[in-house]
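Reopening this one. Same input as before:
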Amino acid sequence: MIEGIILAGGYSSRFKQNKMVVNFKGQALILHTAQTLLKICDHVYVVTGHYHEEIKILFKDYSNITIVNNKDYQEGMFSSVKCGASHVKHDFFIIPGDYPLVSDTTYKTLLKGKKTIRVPSYKHKLGHPLFISYSLKDDLIDTDVESLKDFRNLHDYEIIEVEDQFINFDIDTIEDLEEIEGKE
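Same output, byte for byte:
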């Protein structure tokens, strides 16, 4: 069994509106991320925050997705990582919701790795998603470091080269959205 965590708790301040629900290729941006994860994962947790109600409604018909409202979302993305991790029962992936074009092949490639943390790399640039073994769940929740990157760096993680440029394409601005639409 494998699970997924999608991070969607932020303010989308650079985007000037809730980027998770913006139309991308005919549907809400975050749905692309979720639908790819569901090809690999048995269950997915979407961690919301500032736009909880808007995001929650998108997933009302998905029986294998649980919406988790991070009450501490103002503390930053790592609080959402910890919130999501508190719900998993198996090895898991973590990905921000604004990475809509990461391929299912990337997830499958990460599953073939050996270490407890696995990070994809495209042309030697690290990206998302991260694979984390369930054995690290409690350490992740209890750590006092300030970011997922800091947590990752505490461990002997595995870098796995993939042929997926979209592991490095998140959407922070309208211009990012226009750029990624032009790259598909």
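So the earlier flakiness isn't reproducible anymore. For the record, The longest helix spans residues 29-38.
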